[in-house]
Amino acid sequence: MSKFWSPFVKQLVPYVPGEQPKLANLVKLNTNENPYGPSPKAIEAMRAELNDDLRLYPDPNSDRLKQAVADFYGISASQVFVGNGSDEVLAHAFHGLFQHGRPLLFPDVSYSFYPVYCGLYGIPFEAIALDEQFQIRPEDYLRPNGGIVFPNPNAPTGCLLALEAIERLLQQNPDSVVLVDEAYIDFGGESAVALVERYPNLLVTQTLSKSRSLAGLRVGLAVGHPDLIEALERIKNSFNSYPLDRAAIAGASAAFADRDYFHKTCAQVISSREAVVASLEQLGFEVLPSAANFVFARHPQHDASALAAALRERSVIVRHFNKPRIEQFLRISIGSPEQNKALLDALGAIL
Ligand SMILES: Cc1ncc(COP(=O)(O)O)c(C=O)c1O
Q1: Ligand 1: which of 29, 87, 94, 331 to mutate, judged by most atoms within 8 Å of the beta carbon?
Q2: Tens digit of pLDDT for each residue in 49-75?
Q3: Which of 96, 346, 29, 102 is CA-nearest to residue 230?
Q4: Cβ(209) to ligand 1 under 6 A?
Q5: Can you give the pTM of this predicted structure?
Q6: Smallest Cα–Cα separation from 277: which of 268, 267, 269, 287?
Q7: Nearest to 130, CA basis, from 155, 147, 113
Q8: CB of 85 closer than 6 A to ligand 1?
């Protein structure tokens, strides 16, 4: 705290990201990164950008990347927005589409950045309880609201909401924007991008940090009706005209174009997830059904924070949230086969 801080800064409660430890040789399964590297074509495209042209500003509209996303989904580039990580895209959506005085609705167990953006932009919110199985019930969102946001699959549970349930939410709330945060959709879900043509109140956000393994590059996107996209552009152009640099535009565009590598690595993560779930269940864990690149698991006989600490002593890092309803769960990212084996060996020894 400093006397130079504004009253606004004093009352902010910032988000705390998962630890990025500086130690070598850790089995790092705490921030849902992809164990496989990005597409070699993306790396090549970024290398090609590292030349004298860096003296020039990048394309402020990232048209090449918008077109690559549009080609991938068979939509128009006017339905695509891109930003510096989906966190930035989400922030602009909160600012531009949810600031209405009525409460924003999101699940009680969900991405912990949502309440932080509400604090930053002065948006009232109501956290709606997931059911006993940690699932979203669309009928619970039938109440006055200034918008709805949830991750699909949800984070940190990994549970998926079917597209027909999302359609029900969209139909029940024609006067609100429904934002589906698809950070993890490529690991087993069907994207709501398929609904964008029919629902002008739907905004879908995605990231290249997970399924395209570019967390270090910081690229995210939104797909929606051009009117919603225009709101995001207005915010972006009132904040930072060049959120994506030349390397990011080139690398992200090449990653979207390399479908074979994308499908192959997603399939590897999904198959590892099924193997990890089976092994965790053999060790006595209850594992929520996951459509993501992580699992959410609890052990009926072992305290989750003690398990996380014991894993850490064995150089394996997973995420534990000290929060109501989920304090007995561990969120474990799916790693490479070697990392997953190290996790399971460590758990076997601890238990
Ligand atoms: C649900 C959810 N949404 C959005 C993000 C942000 O992703 P990024 O800013 O890396 O694109 C994350 C990151 O972990 C996430 O879990």
Answers
A1: 87
A2: 999 999 999 999 999 999 999 999 999
A3: 96
A4: yes
A5: 0.97
A6: 287
A7: 155
A8: yes
Give the pLDDT confidence of 171-221 residue by residue, as tens digits: 999 999 999 999 999 999 999 999 999 999 999 999 999 999 999 999 999
- Phi and psi at residue 167, in whole multiples of 5°? -65, -40
pLDDT at 22: 82
Q: Tell me, using a 6 A CB cutoff, whether residue 151 lines ligand 1.
A: yes
Query: Which pLDDT value is given to residue 311?
Result: 97
Atom 15 in ligand 1: residue holding the nearest Cα: 183
Q: What is the pLDDT of residue 21?
A: 85
Is the shortest distance between the CB of 26 and ligand 1 below 6 Å? no
Q: Report the atom number in ligand 1 closest to the C-alpha of 86.
A: 11
> Looking at ligand 1, which atom is closest to the CA of residue 219?
11
Which neighbouring-strand residues pair with 296? 331
Single out the residue of 85, 94, 95 nearest to residue 243, CA to CA: 85
- Answer yes or no: is the C-beta of 111 below 6 A from any ligand 1 atom: yes
Q: Among residues 139, 140, 145, 154, which one has the least CA distance to residue 124? A: 145
Ligand 1 centre and the CA of 75: distance in Å?
A: 23
Instruction: Give phi and psi for 16, each to the nearest 5.
Output: -115, 110
| Amino acid, single-letter form, for residue 80 | V
Dist. CA 105–CA 262, nearest whole Å: 33
Residue 96 pLDDT class (50, 70, 90 cuts) = very high
pLDDT, mean of residues 312-332 = 96
Determine the distance separating the centroid of ligand 1 and the alpha carbon of 87, expressed in angstroms. Answer: 6
Quote the tokens at residue 204.
């879908």
